[in-house]
Amino acid sequence: MKVVDAICEILKREGVEFLSCYPTNTLIEAAATAGIKPIVCRQERVGVGIADGFTRITNGKRIGVFTMQAGPGAENAFSGITTAYSDSVPILILPVGHARNTSQVFHFFRSVQAYAPVTKWTEEITLASQVPEIMRRAFSYLKMGRLGPVLVEIPNDAAIEEFQGALNYTPVKRTVSGANAKDVAEAAKVLVQAKSPVVVAGQGVLYAEASDELIELAELLQAPVTTPLEGKSAFPEHHPLSLGTGAGVMPRPVHTFLQKADVVFAIGASLTRHNIVAAPIPAGKIIIHATNDERDINKHYPADYPILGDAKPVLRQFIEAVKDLLGNKKRAENGSVPAAIKKGKEEWMAEWMPKLTSNEKPITPYRVMWEFMNGFDRKEVIVTHDAGSPRNQLVPFYQAPTPRSYIGWGKSHALGTGLGLIMGAKLAAPQKFCVNFMGDAAFGMTGLDFETAVRCNIPTLTIVLNNNFMAAETHTMETSHERYGTMNILGNYADLARSLGGWSERVEDPVQIVPALQRARKVTEDGKAALLEFITSREIAYSRMRD
Ligand SMILES: Cc1ncc(C[n+]2csc(CCOP(=O)(O)OP(=O)(O)O)c2C)c(N)n1
Ligand SMILES: [Mg+2]
User: Fold this and answer.
1) N or C end of the chain, less CB within 10 A?
2) What does the DSSP 8-state code read for residue 363?
3) pLDDT along the chain (547 residues), means of 10
4) What confidence score (pLDDT) does residue 251 get?
5) Domain-by-domain residue ranges, the chain?
6) 42 — alpha (psi -120 to 50), left (phi > 0) or beta?
7) pLDDT given for residue 363 in this prediction
8) d(Cα 363, Cα 534) in Å, to the nearest integer?
9) Rounded CA gap, 78 and 49, in Å?
10) Which class is 357-535 in CATH?
11) Cis peptide before 362 (omega within 30 of 0)
12) 3-state secondary structure of 350
C-alpha cells in the first residue's frame, strides 16, 4: 500500500464521505480506489468552501476534506483556508507538496510554512511510516479544543512511497470538558441578580449542539438572546426571547437591549470586536465570558467572570446553578421581557416593511429576501449570504428557526465564498432546500463553480442579485466612479448558468419573484442545480445601528 492509500484508508475509518479536490493529485485516484467519492471543483478556494460548508452543517461531526496539487493548487486555495481559519472551522486540507529533495529550496511554495499562520496546525509527511501518527494528530486537533483547519502536506514523492506493514489506526475519540464549578456558581449569582442580562450565544453553541440547553437557560433567566453572525441559528430567531442576529447589521432590539444591559453573558463566543460579524458590546457592562479557548478571554473585552469549557456542559452547569438559586421560579415571571422585545421588533419592522414589500422596479433585494423568507418552511431550508450588500440585507431580517438552518460566516469575508459553502451544506443535508444569495461582484469571483453544482449533482439554488454594480462600495469609490465608472460591472448570469448546464431564469418584475422561486425549488427537488438572477436596485440602506 502506498502512502496515499494509507491516508485514504484512515479517512475511511474516520468516516470521511467524499473528497473535495482539484488535480493534479495522486490522492484523488487513491480515494476513488478506496470508495471515497472525489468531487472536483473548478477552483481550489471553492473546493475548500465545499469542505467548509459540509463541516459547518454537521457541527464538525463529519469532517470535510480538500486536496489539491503542489504549488499553484495550494496557492489558489488561500482565501478558502483563511475563511475556515477566521471562523474556526475544522476541515482537513491535504495539499500535495513539492518532492522532499526540492521542497525546502528557495522559491518553492511550501504549504506547511505558508499556511501555518492561518491554520490550527500544519505538518508534513516526511516518512511513510509516520502516516498513522500524523493523521491521528490531525484528527485530534480537528475534533477537540478550539476548532480550526488542519493541514497535512504530502510531498509528491512521499505520496507514492510504500507504506510498510499493517495499518494500525483507530478513529480519534472526542472529549470535552465543563467549567470550574466555583466560577459557574459565582457567575450564576451575578446572572440571577442582574437587572437586564443579555445572552450572546456564539457558534460554540452550534458545534456543541447545545441549543436546547441555551433555550432552557434563557427561559429560566428570562434573558434576551442575540448571536453574532457565526452563531446565527444557535437560538431560534422566532423565539420570544430572541433579539435576532447582532452583526454589523442587526434588528434594533439587539442594539437597545445591549445598551441597557447590565450583565452580558457570552457563551461559546469569541467576543471578537469585528465590525461585520459582531454587534459591539457597549462599555461598562459586567461580562461573563464562557469559551473553550483562553485566547478569547480578555482579547477585546475584559472578562469579569472568565469561564473555560465547552458550551454544552457549561450551559448545563449554569442551568443547575441558576435553578438552585431561583428555586422553582423564573427570574422575571411577568412576561415583561418578551413583551419589550416584541414591541421593539414591531417598531423596527414597521420602518422596514415598505422596503421589504416594495413593488419598485428594478426590484429591491429586500423584496426578494422577504418573499423567499415567507415562501418556504424555513426548517426545511439552509441559507447563506455572500459578502457585500446581500449579507447586510439578509442577515437582520432572515429568521433562522433551527440550528444550522443558516450559515452565518465571515470574519474573513471574501466575495464568492457562499457558493462553495452552500454546496457543502447540500452534501451534508441533501433533503434540505439549500440556497445562497450573491451579488453580481460576488458571483464574478467564483461563479463558474456553479458548473460544479450542475456536474456533481449538487442541486442548490444560487440567487444572484444583479445590479450591474458594486453597491457596497458606493461610499468608497465616489471620485473614481464619477471619472471612470469603477463600480460598474457587467453580466447576464442566467444565460451563463444555462450555458454551464444548469436551470436558470432572469426575473425583472416583482410579481414574478414568488413563482420563480417556486419553480426553482421544484428544479432542485428534481435534482438539478438552479440559478435565479434578479435584476435589482443599487440598494445600500442597511439596518445598521450606530450611535
Ligand atoms: C475577495 C474580496 N475582495 C474584495 C472585497 C470587498 N468588497 C466587499 S463587498 C464588494 C462589492 C460587492 O458587490 P456585489 O457582490 O455586486 O454586491 P452589491 O453590493 O452590489 O449588492 C467588495 C468589492 C471582498 N469582500 N472580498
Ligand atoms: Mg452588485
Assistant:
1) C
2) B
3) 98 98 97 98 98 98 98 98 98 98 95 98 98 98 98 98 97 98 98 97 98 97 97 98 98 98 98 97 98 98 98 98 90 87 98 98 98 98 98 98 98 98 99 98 98 98 98 97 98 98 98 98 98 98 83
4) 98
5) 3-159, 181-340, 357-535
6) alpha
7) 98
8) 7
9) 11
10) alpha beta
11) yes
12) helix
Q: CB neighbours of 337 closer than 8 A, spacing ≥ 6? A: 222, 223, 224, 241
Looking at domain 3-159, its CATH superfamily turns out to be Thiamin diphosphate (ThDP)-binding fold, Pyr/PP domains (3.40.50.970)
CA torsion, points 342, 345, 347, 349, in degrees to nearest 10? -140
Residue with grid cell 452583526, as numbered in its chain: 247
Q: Is 18 within 8 Å of 67 (Cβ atoms)? A: no
The cell numbers describing 166, all together, are: 499493517
Q: Which residues surround ligand 2, an ion (CB under 5 A)?
A: 439-440, 467, 469
Please state the atom number of ligand 1 nearest to the C-alpha of residue 416.
1
> Is 538 strand, coil or helix?
coil
Cell numbers given for 108: 518553492
Q: Which of 369, 394, 415, 443 to mutate to test the pocket of ligand 1 (most atoms within 8 A of CB)?
A: 415
Atom of ligand 1 nearest to the CA of 469: 20
Which ligand 1 atom is the nearest neighbour of the CA of 365?
Answer: 21
> Which of 463, 470, 486 has most ligand 1 atoms within 8 Å of its beta carbon, as the pocket-test mutant?
470
What is the CB neighbour count within 10 angstroms for residue 121?
Answer: 17
In ligand 1, which atom is closest to the CA atom of 439? 15
Fold of 181-340: Rossmann fold (3.40.50)
Helix, strand, coil % (nearest 5) of the chain? 45, 15, 40
List, in sequence order, every residue forming a beta bridge with 123; answer none if it has no partner.
152
User: What confidence score (pLDDT) does residue 547 get?
Assistant: 53
The closest residue, in CA terms, to atom 1 on ligand 1 is: 414
pLDDT at 112: 98
Q: What cell numbers appear for 149 in the block?
A: 483547519
Q: Which amino acid would we find at residue 261?
A: A
Ligand 1: centre distance to CA 443 (Å): 10
> Which grid cell is 493?
448570469
Closest CA to 135 of 103, 172, 174: 172
Supply the residue whose CA is at minimum distance from atom 7 of ligand 1.
388
Specify the DSSP element, H or E, that contains 261.
none
Closest CA relative to residue 46, chosen from 438, 368, 380: 438
Give the DSSP letter string of 108-139.
---HHHHTGGGSSEEEE--SGGGHHHHHHHHH
How many whole angstroms from 208 Cα to the centroid of ligand 2?
Answer: 36
Cα of 307 from ligand 1 centre, angstroms: 37
Q: In the prediction, which pLDDT does 499 show? A: 98
226 burial (CB, 10 Å; 0-12 / 13-18 / 19+) is buried
